[in-house]
Amino acid sequence: MSRTPIKAVIPAAGLGTRFLPATKAMPKEMLPVVDKPAIQYVVEEAVAAGIDDVLIILGRNKNNISNHFDSMPELESNLLKKGDQEKLDRVLHSNDLADIHYVRQGEPKGLGHAVLRARNHVGDSTFAVLLGDDLIDERDPLLPKMLAENAASGLTVVALMEVDPEHIHMYGAAAVEPTDDPDVVRVTGLVEKPNKEDAPSNYAVIGRYVLTPGVFDILERTEPGKGGEIQLTDALQELATTDGVLGVVFRGRRYDTGDRVDYIKAIVQLAADRTDLGPDLRPWLKDFAAQL
Q1: CATH top-level class for 7-258?
Q2: Could you say which of 59, 80, 157, 266 is the most buried, measured as most Cβ atoms within 10 Å of its Cβ?
Q3: Is the pTM of this model over 0.85?
Q4: Do residues 109 and 97 touch, judged by C-beta distance below 8 A?
């Protein structure tokens, strides 16, 4: 039997309080990273991995997201009349990226609750979850490896990255055992944002997951944890001790846009690597850095 096509779920219902007042009326997922909103990079990553069905979990006042992926006839007509084909192509690209659906989370009750809101759309199938705070460089694909590991094993797969132990308290930390593949580990336990002394390792869970549908039943009975939120980590912990969870260790380029300083770094790094912006930006950066 052929494998059911994988769908992608992108939770985008957070309040974005770290970026206030910019996010007072604009979703944090729509903040530009160079010249595209952050969420477009995430949708493009899913599409590049062969996924063409995307569900975005929205919160209140997030209509800008659905507007971005919709047609804008007046803008498109004006660009066409001006003969600005390059900009028109870029606008049309965001319209036709994927078959994009939307559902509202209602109250911001945590990542686990946001994932649970995808149940009716996903059904009884494995699906991918991509968080908008983590941008994965298109030159270092991660999701295809995760999908391949899931296809081979039938298990839930999470993305892991080795971080400085001083920073592990910012992540979910995984207890792991090696496998025959140096880039794949077996996850035996998970702890949400532990102190350095209590962390089982410096393997941090980053924002990419390939989840089996059994996670929904677990989330249904998961009690709210820290901050009154339903934590996806708690459900993954149960899966790790029952069905089993694999971790794919990512060693490529990742940009954290959930923190203000890291968001600025992401813009600079991506712009400096671009052929249209880098030649002008890199010499300026060197001169600017020399003045500091």
Answers
A1: alpha beta
A2: 157
A3: yes
A4: no
